[in-house]
Amino acid sequence: MTYLVIGICIFLLIVVIFISAKPISMGIEARRNIKDFDHVEDEKNKNYISDNEDEKILNTSISDEINKLNDLKTKGILTEEEYQKAKDKLLN
């Protein structure tokens, strides 16, 4: 009698596992798809932000370099001609 009860319990356990396996695998796959979608969206946002930041950095660094050149010209280290050449090189 004990073996019959244990056999029925094991059979029911296998049936429950078999029935629940498909929904569990579908949930795991859905979670992976959401993570992949979020990853793609994050990359798009990073690229957009990165492009804007690169543009700001480029503009800031050019203005900083022109200020440095102006300081060198003011101190007499650069001549007016050298200053203009360097400034034109930065702007082009």
Distance between the termini: 93 Å
Strand content: under 5%
Overall geometric form: rod-shaped
**Which class of secondary structure composition applies to the elements?**
mainly alpha
Count the DSSP helices: 2
Radius of gyration: 34 Å
Listing every helix as H and every strand as E from the N terminus to the C terminus, the arrangement reads HH
- Helix percent band: over 70%
**Would you count the extended β strands for me?**
0
Poorly predicted runs of 5 or more residues: none
The largest β sheet comes out as: none
Overall pLDDT, averaged?
78
Summarize the structure in words.
By secondary structure, the chain is mostly helical. It has a domain at 34-91. The protein has two helices and no strands. The longest helix has 74 residues, at 2-75. The N and C termini lie far apart (93 Å). The relative contact order is 0.05.
Could you give a quick summary of the protein structure above?
With 92 residues, the chain is mostly helical. It is built from 2 helices and no strands. The chain is rod-shaped, with a radius of gyration of 34 Å.
List the helices and strands and how they pair.
Blueprint: H1 2-75, H2 80-91
Entry keywords:
single chain; 92 residues; mainly alpha; 2 helices
